[in-house]
Design a protein that fits this description.
The protein has 283 residues and is α/β, with parallel strands linked by helices. The protein has two domains: 2-105, translation initiation factor eif-2b, domain 1 (Four Helix Bundle (Hemerythrin (Met), subunit A)); 116-282, 3-Layer(aba) Sandwich (Rossmann fold), CATH 3.40.50. The protein has helices at 2-10, 17-27, 39-55, 61-75, 82-114, 128-139, 156-165, 180-183, 208-217, and strands at residues 119-123, 144-149, 170-175, 189-192, 196-198, 201-205, 222-225, 231-232, 263-267, 273-276, 279-282.
């Protein structure tokens, strides 16, 4: 399961960074069923397998933080037996998963109270926190016109559009990434999720930066949603991921190179606000 989860993370089969972190933490539960000669051997295996999962995507702050917490808290607790050490690790995994899911839920609830009904919104990529926030807002009677970018080259936005279209009260229009600037004239707000914010830079799916810059030019506020655990001030260096050229074009590139970064960097001064489980911060 650990190797399979690591491969899924490498292939980005799950697009929500919170879900990636939960899946990675859950994958470590496989170690709770194995036999080890000593507590130290179990802790070594826990650390080694956590590193395998972390290396699968160094850019995922939620993934990195979740697995570090599992290893640090489980290994930092004294245990008299392997069984006790495994029990402690299991409890830590449950706690880490609960904190991730609760933070995401509270962030969505805080955002739902901010989003006004009868607004025209634009979103980029696929964020389960944005999805949940809009679902919660519509439950209180809000209605939205929503533009959803395709999020090329993997067209993640198409999946998002289908999910949003299933919500009563949301009228969805799928657009190409390049059409974002054109449709901003009709929008009241841009709402996106985040992979992480490190110091004063938002890292999110590639295409976020030009969209935020265009929105700033057109005086359309940009709101970012996500758990506070994704706000990093120290101890983390974002490493972008460059995806295969085959995602951009199927035929071989002859005489030229293909660059396919997964994320881009958006200065936070282009944002109007960030809403997390701890509240709302404006810029």
């Amino acid at each position: 399961m650990i190797d399979e989860t690591a491969e899924e993370i490498r292939q980005m089969q799950t697009h929500s960074s919170s879900v990636v972190a939960v899946n990675a933490a859950r994958a470590l539960e496989e170690l709770l069923e194995r036999e080890y000669a000593t507590v130290e051997e179990f802790h070594t295996a826990l650390d080694r397998n956590a590193k395998i999962l972390r290396r699968a995507n160094p850019s995922h702050a939620s993934l990195q933080n979740a697995l570090r917490k599992v290893v640090d808290e489980a290994s930092g607790t004294e245990s008299d037996s392997v069984e006790q050490a495994q029990s402690v690790a299991g409890a830590v995994i449950e706690d880490v998963v609960a904190r991730i899911e609760a933070g995401k839920r509270r962030a969505a609830e805080n955002a739902a109270s901010v989003l006004a009904g009868d607004e025209t919104l634009l979103t980029h990529d696929y964020s389960t926190t944005v999805l949940e926030a809009i679902e919660l807002a519509t439950e209180t009677g809000a209605e939205f016109d929503l533009y959803v970018t395709e999020a090329r080259p993997r067209y993640i936005g198409r999946k998002a559009a289908r999910r949003f279209a299933a919500i009563d009260g949301v009228d969805v229009t799928l657009i190409t990434d390049a059409a974002g600037g054109h449709h901003l004239a009709d929008c009241d707000r841009v709402v996106v999720g985040m992979d992480c914010i490190v110091d004063d830079v938002l890292y999110n799916r590639v295409g976020t930066f030009p969209l935020a810059a265009a929105a700033d030019r057109r005086d359309v506020p940009v709101t970012v949603l996500g758990a506070a655990s994704k706000l990093i001030t120290q101890g983390f260096v974002f490493e972008n991921e460059y995806r295969p050229a085959s995602e951009v074009m199927l035929e071989p590139a002859e005489g030229f190179d293909v660059s396919n970064p997964a994320y881009d960097a958006t200065p936070v001064d282009l944002l109007e606000s960030v809403i997390t489980d701890e509240g709302r911060e404006t810029f």
